């Protein structure tokens, strides 16, 4: 058993247990607060799941670091060093969770030397457990998964989101990209969760996903999932992936990734 296996096994148990907190709200959660704007939501369950995960992991691995969505929202620094760092979105797709739309998940990425080496994306409502470890493949409920082999944009199903910002410049880019993807791809889908959109690419159900404005906690697990399923993660303009850039593009093949990068309008949010 490697060190990563040991870290992963502890995290997996904690994630499965924390999933019960989400399962208690299958039909939605009508008590929530707003964060950066009226569509950026947080619930008590987001907080409890994150506290459960960070509490359990820090007890077992006191030298590890943490970047959690709600800890950062509460003022903690979003700082990535070379140390083993757990990058956590306790409820990815909180808007879905609030509405009882069953596409939300716990997303936990383990990042060492600034690269994701293990990932867990768990949708407890639909019992979808996506996992990956460096060099060991990607799995859905224990069954190995692979990206599609789609190379051309005109044959690609693309997942992307409007996001949780009503910033005018961003909305202009979102609407422009909606037009560009609809007219050049096979179709578009939006699950309302960056982590689950990336998991769909790893599963081969979607052929590519891109989004501007997400944070490290939305994509740390999805990055390793896609790569271990045989796909690629890059910057949406075509360069190397940067987990703190708040920009992501992942795809089944590099050919598709680069064609999509050339097709979409770009947006550059402030970094994490
Ligand atoms: C969500 C992301 C989603 C994005 C939303 C939001 P949250 O994460 O996963 O892709 O479009 O704006 O950021 O806030 O539900 O954890």
Helix and strand arrangement:
Layout: H1 3-23, E1 33-34, E2 41-42, H2 44-60, E3 65-68, H3 69-73, E4 85-92, H4 94-99, E5 105-112, E6 115-123, E7 128-133, E8 138-140, E9 143-145, E10 157-160, H5 168-184, E11 187-189, H6 194-203, E12 208-212, H7 216-228, E13 232-234, E14 247-251, H8 254-263
Parallel strand pairs: 3-4, 10-11, 10-12
Antiparallel strand pairs: 1-2, 4-5, 5-6, 6-7, 7-8, 8-9, 12-14, 13-14
Helix pairs in contact: 1-2, 6-7
The chain binds L-MYO-inositol-1-phosphate (LIP).
L-MYO-inositol-1-phosphate binds at residues 69, 89, 92-94, 161, 163-164, 193-194, 211, 214, 218.
Briefly characterize the structure.
The chain is an alpha+beta fold and 272 residues long. The chain is 36% helix and 24% strand. The strands form three sheets. It has a seven-stranded mixed β-sheet, sandwiched between helices. It has a five-stranded mixed β-sheet with strand order 11-10-12-14-13, with helices on both faces. A two-stranded antiparallel ribbon has the order 1-2.
Averaged pLDDT: 97
The SSE string, one letter per element, is: HEEHEHEHEEEEEEHEHEHEEH
Distance between the termini: 34 Å
Structure ligands: L-MYO-inositol-1-phosphate
CATH topology of the largest domain: Fructose-1,6-Bisphosphatase, Chain A, domain 1
Radius of gyration: 17 Å
The number of distinct helices, counting runs of at least 4 residues, comes to 8
- Classified by CATH, the class of the largest domain is Alpha Beta
Give the total of domains: 2
The biggest beta sheet, please?
A: 7 strands, mixed
